[in-house]
User: What shape does this take?
Amino acid sequence: MLRLPPMAERAGRAALRQGLERLGHAVTARIWRLGFAARFFAYMVVHSGTAFRRFGLTIREIYFAGVQSMIIILVSGLFVGMVLALQGYETLQRYGSSEALGILVALSLVRELGPVVAGLLFASRAGSAITAEIGLMKATEQIAAMEMMAVDPIARVVAPRFWAGVISMPLLAALFSAMGIFGGYLVGVQLIGVDEGAFWSQMQASVDVREDIMNGVIKSVVFGIAVTWIAVFEGYDAPPTAEGVSGATTRTVVTSSLAILALDFVLTALMFTGGNAR
Amino acid sequence: MKRSTIDIWVGAFVAAGLAGLLFLALKVGNLASFSSAQAYQVQAKFANIGGLKVRAPIKSAGVVVGRVSEVRFDNESYEAIVTFVIDAHYQFPRDTSAKILTSGLLGEQYVGLEAGGDGVMLKSGDRLRLTQSAVVLENLISQFLFNKAAEGKEGKDGK
Assistant: This one.
């Protein structure tokens, strides 16, 4: 039987120990960061008085997060609606029910695509900008300077951006859905020639304001909270270096996209579990 | 950028977003159609409701007059109790009959109301006496097959 010399055995044990330690450190660091993010969120919500008392600050951020995202949201909404109408028509006319095109376009936009795609676009257009801005403020020690002047940077810098995102997101999602339905109308009715009356009336008959539209709005509010929370947290937590800020910006987009998709599944499972299930 | 310019843009953005929501609610979702404030509830018992769902339309002469608000199983009569919410603009006689119909060959199921001749109108909480259940395709087909089989036998016996 082969016996390792005592030195090698000791080295092996040390390596095992080190591996375990590294694993444990990775896990505790993640959990610690999650807890930090939660405390950060609570602190931010408690200290968001300034964001509402001096609403000008929040309005400025709504301009950067919301107004400047409008073009991309409107254009992509239009195209998503047009593609939905083209593809939906292709499938529906096989079953001779091309009049249901309105239902297909409206329900898929209002329930799913509106909040989700608008959320993904918002995360990459506005979320990344928020992270980069806060991260850079930290890297150039503006945040530290504020603390020196006894100005709470979370109340003054972070909270207005957070609330601006939460306010902007549902509006952007509604614009996306409305624009998408208009795009579906353009392609379905004007281009392909589905009957206009059937398009709108079938849509109106099967889209419920509370069940479909309100749930879509709730989804977009939840996505807005998730995306902006991740964005401001990553920015605030970014290492104050050039690489740190760029890494944080990437993490914002990746994490918030995954969060949107995962949350969307959970919310859909909670909201739309069949009309007969009740 | 000047403060007032930003304010104008944000105002336009919020207005556009709210307009989008309003468009969704009114034009897409048809919010104005039914509110429970001016509607009355009527119940009906069916032996079989087929695929009727909550929120299915209730039509009379093809016009949508209400929605199905609840579908429930009655433990005593072993039948389905369906609750209709009918817009108060539309009044029906007390002996109105309800049928479960299908739009198109395989389309969605809805309730058809046929007005009777009674002078007294339905009011909230009434129960419709005359109902006709949904047509179940399997039963229809098996009935048809039985008839065919019976016909075939008769034809053979006659020879």
